[in-house]
Amino acid sequence: MEITEELRKYLRCKKGNVEEMKKFLEDHQSHSQFYQSFFEDACRQGHVESLKYLLKNKREEIDVNRARIGYGSATPFYLACQHGHLEIVKLLLSLKYFKVNLNKANYKNQTPFYIACYGGHMEIVKLLLSLKDERIDISQPNDDGETPFWIACHNGRLGVVKLLLSDPRIDVNQPSDDGRTPLWIVYDRKNFRIMECILASGKEVNLDVKDNNKGKTIIDIAMKEQSYGIVRMLNSFLTNPNKTRFNLRIQLGLTGNTLFI
What we know:
Shape: elongated
Structural class: mainly alpha
């Protein structure tokens, strides 16, 4: 396909060239789809100045909550959270004349908060946790029953896990649809520091859960794999959780009521 000069201009707009975008939109005022397209690309790619211009001058042409099929039915806010664009997230949260749907999920039922946890975007996770906004469900699972905390554990996002463990709303025992709890999955993926953090957090931890596939508990699997250090730690937690938690907190450098933030 021949790349025309008009197409080159369009592509430069999508890459965040604000002056080029202004001129392009002036020349194509009857094509409202360009406003939405540039808005979504600004959120996805982190083009703050482009977003500011569109919100100030073309906001009547923009649907802030439109789920774009080409991006997995993701909203602009979701795209900003997915790609770790903190300034874009802050800008969207500050809007007074739009009500951004903070919990609108993509086609896999992954919310913006879920995808921020998935990607390990700590500052966005911290910001969304601080809102205490009823529009954000920090525990909504995806279509496979995986919560934001579960996926942070699965992906080894230690910093995000610590943030979530410091929030009283987090349930560390909520399993995915296949029966694996967050603690189960961190053992399976050998993320032992995260396992230590969960046990040290002060939250009630259920070690008796069996996954649906193997019908085994974490201790059963660890014993079979001869991970005797893990077996000792988990058995110690079962026998005397307070003492085990105390020792782990010393090991992790936590004192008194200090959490992980």
